[in-house]
Design brief:
29% strand; MPP_YfcE; metal-binding; alpha/beta; Phosphoesterase; five-stranded mixed beta sheet
Amino acid sequence: MKLFFASDLHGSLEATERVLEHYRQSGAEHLVVLGDVLNHGPRNPVPESYNPPKVAELLNEHKASIIAVRGNCDSEVDQMLLEFPMMSDYAWVMLPTGQRLFLTHGHLYNGEKRPALKRGDVIAHGHTHIPVAEWQGEQIIFNPGSITFPRNGYAASYGLLKDDQLSVMTFDGEVLASITL
């Protein structure tokens, strides 16, 4: 199984084009979008190349391969532009290892506030814009960072699940965080 993770696009056309280029090159089966897709949000500046309608158009080209959850900046108006569902606060993916992958944005559930999980399950979320791939207690916390507004001095990043390896990568190929399931 190969999954590609992107979070916090915030309507940036340039960031979305980079994500989709790397997604296509990765050979991943699905693009997992962890929220904050079209809107920049009131606490963020308007990103360069801000173009939510065009971002929606590009993402819609991959609608059959996208698994998406709602972020705190996403709304029903955004859903009207997108041809794949993204208004759920979370989604589950069963991994071939038997572990569960809990997908969420991070504003409702995260490493500090977890749903009922088993040992070895993974919480994948965005929201903080900070890359993470590590055990915290009995679960793995995974955050692909942010494409548009990386924080704490990190470069723009995305996530990749390949076989049993979860990694956060920069667009230059640097591994920022990695963990084996």
